Automatic annotation (TrEMBL):
Pfam families: SBP_bac_11, VWA. SMART domains: VWA. It comes from the Bacteria. Residues 388-561 form the VWFA domain. This is VWA domain-containing protein. InterPro entries: CLCR, VWF_A, vWFA_dom_sf. It comes from Neobacillus notoginsengisoli. The lineage of its organism: Bacteria, Bacillati, Bacillota, Bacilli, Bacillales.
């Protein structure tokens, strides 16, 4: 062979060699991925395989003393300083105003802050004294809890809508409506454009009746927010009940309609942010949102259609408590100041006052009916599918001290919100995994065992988080073979650091295949790691490193349990 041919053959051989080598690497890599790929068909075999590699112990059952007293809302609420003062008072004569965050935040959500700063700069006087206001940004539902519990009562309150004012009034706190409207806003359902067109084709138009019918017929995947905490969520609940029976929101016809509708609701979110993340993932075709947020979100305006519903969100202003005549005059002057031309134009710039032509067919509901509707939602939101949940608690050495104490407090106080119709189990993990409490209905006996198990937790050893999750999934799947008509959930309580056992990559496919939402609660935590776990199936993640952890967990359990 001459030198030229030899070089060509050598070059071809080299190319083939490198092709085989790198092709082999690529193939091996793909094979590795395919081994990890878990489908619904092979999920059980993969689960059993993973479970067999975990050293699982059985905990000794120990009963604890159950506290049968009702939960103390005032005790659960953190110090009010947890919620920021966005505008400070500039004089000794002032009123503090609780304001909903869509107008007391930052950027387009800072309207009332700018009004308050202008008001304070104006040096207005009452009885010869310069006056001012102090704005505290706090969600309407949380603000209502503070006022109703008596833990902290401001002189004034501007929630998103009048429902919260009615509930404050019903609680016995003196409440006077000073202004029905500071800035106009409307709640709505945003639906993907293609789905909206399909609904128009079938129902002729899209309104709440068409949407609830579509939901009942399983033609629309829509989510909404917690009616205990969210103005839009509460409004949607009342609007749906009103759609089913206008004459009696809590009557049998309304309840039956709600149960049929709710059976096909795939997602109730703790927060609007969580709901929007679920929509981004493709899990939802529609969700509830205020118009002011919608109009300031280009990604939504381009892809969704906004349909208004319910009572308007016009930010009413209330005087709260037994205040002096001077304080009441300050509130009245502030309302008048906010309604001036300059500040109404500013409101429009920030997305308010955009749908002034919309008028609600539903009248404001009294506080007693609103509270009863919330209770109805809590009882009926899971329909005929009770919850089956496993708590997976981190008892590794890194949880020693304050994180462990906070976790115990969270579970012991939070368990008061676990419905008796649900079934509960408890797993702990460090180097290995222990089933402290097999899944069983959360009756008095199971509650006592749960309390006893939590009280006995001690921190030691390494952190095998994903082994704990595998064991929880296995427990749920084994129980669901006996009782398939339940909704499975997992709650992971951890600092988020994993250094032993399976990895997230190992079990991600398993979590996806079984579609079990995993809610995470982080104590002194690597929050990003926990958020990654929760995001797989659109669950929420909570930062428990604050004095409001019990209140946060109460709200989470209210929505999910």
């Amino acid at each position: 062979m001459n030198k030229g041919k030899f070089l060509i053959v050598s070059l071809i051989a080299a190319v083939v060699f490198f092709g085989i080598v790198y092709g082999g690497i690529s193939l091996t890599s793909n094979l590795g991925k395919s081994k990890k790929q878990i489908t619904a068909e092979n999920a059980e075999a993969q689960l059993d395989k993973m479970y067999s590699k975990i050293d699982v112990a059985k905990g000794k059952p120990v009963k604890g003393q159950i506290d049968l007293n009702p939960a103390d809302l005032a005790e659960e609420l953190p110090d009010i300083d947890k919620f920021p003062v966005t505008v400070k008072n500039s004089t000794d004569s002032f009123v503090e105003i609780f304001s909903s965050p869509e107008k007391s935040g930052k950027g387009n959500d800072a309207w009332i802050n700018e009004v308050a700063e202008d008001f304070n700069d104006s040096k207005l006087k009452v009885d010869g004294k310069a006056v001012s206001v102090k704005i505290r940004s706090i969600a309407s539902g949380t603000a209502t809890d503070y006022i109703k519990s008596g833990k902290y009562i401001p002189e004034a309150f501007t929630p998103s809508n009048e429902f919260w004012g009615e509930m404050v009034k019903e609680s016995g706190v003196t409440t006077e409506l000073i202004s029905k409207r500071l800035a106009g806003n409307v709640p709505g359902i945003v639906i993907k454009k293609k789905k909206h067109e399909q609904l128009v084709d079938k129902y002729g138009s899209v309104n709440v009746k068409a949407i609830t019918d579509a939901m009942a017929n399983n033609e629309l995947a829509m989510g909404y927010t917690d009616p205990f905490a969210s103005s839009t969520g509460l409004n949607f609940l009342l609007t749906a009940l009103n759609t089913f029976d206008k004459s009696n929101l809590l009557g049998e016809k309304a309840v039956q309609g709600f149960e049929t509708f709710q059976a096909n609701v795939p997602f109730t979110a703790s927060t609007t942010l969580q709901m929007r993340e679920a929509a981004k993932s493709g899990a939802l075709e529609g969700f509830v949102l205020e118009y002011q947020t919608f109009i300031n979100s280009p990604d939504l305006k381009d892809s969704y259609v906004f349909t208004p519903f319910g009572v308007r969100h016009d930010s009413p202003l209330y005087a709260i408590g037994d205040i002096s005549a001077e304080k009441k005059q300050i509130i009245e002057k502030f309302a008048e100041f906010a309604q001036g031309k300059k500040h109404q134009e500013l409101a429009k710039k920030y997305g308010f006052n955009g749908l002034d032509q919309y008028a609600s067919e539903m009248k404001t509901v009294d506080g007693a009916t609103l509270s009863a509707a919330q209770k109805l939602w809590k009882e009926k939101k899971n329909g005929n599918k009770p919850i089956m949940a496993v708590f997976v608690a981190d008892v590794s050495g890194s949880m020693d001290g304050e994180p462990m104490n906070r976790m115990k407090e969270s579970l012991l106080k939070g368990q008061k919100y676990l419905g008796k119709d649900n079934s509960i189990g408890l797993v702990t993990y460090s180097d290995d995994v222990t089933i402290n409490l097999p899944i069983a209905p959360f009756d008095t006996n199971q509650q006592s065992l749960f309390v006893g198990a939590v009280e006995g937790l001690q921190a030691n050893g390494g952190t095998a988080t994903y082994d704990g999750i595998v064991v929880a999934i296995k427990m749920l799947k084994d129980e669901m073979k006996k009782n398939p008509d339940v909704r499975p959930l997992i709650f992971v309580l951890s600092d988020g650091e994993t250094n032993q056992g399976h990895s997230l990559d190992d079990i991600r496919g398993l979590i996806q295949a079984y579609k079990v939402p995993i809610y995470t609660i982080g104590y002194n935590a690597n929050l990003k790691a926990l958020q990654t776990i929760s995001s797989i199936n659109e669950a929420a993640s909570i930062n428990a490193d604050s004095d409001d952890v019990v209140y946060k967990i109460k709200n989470l359990f209210n929505v999910q349990m």
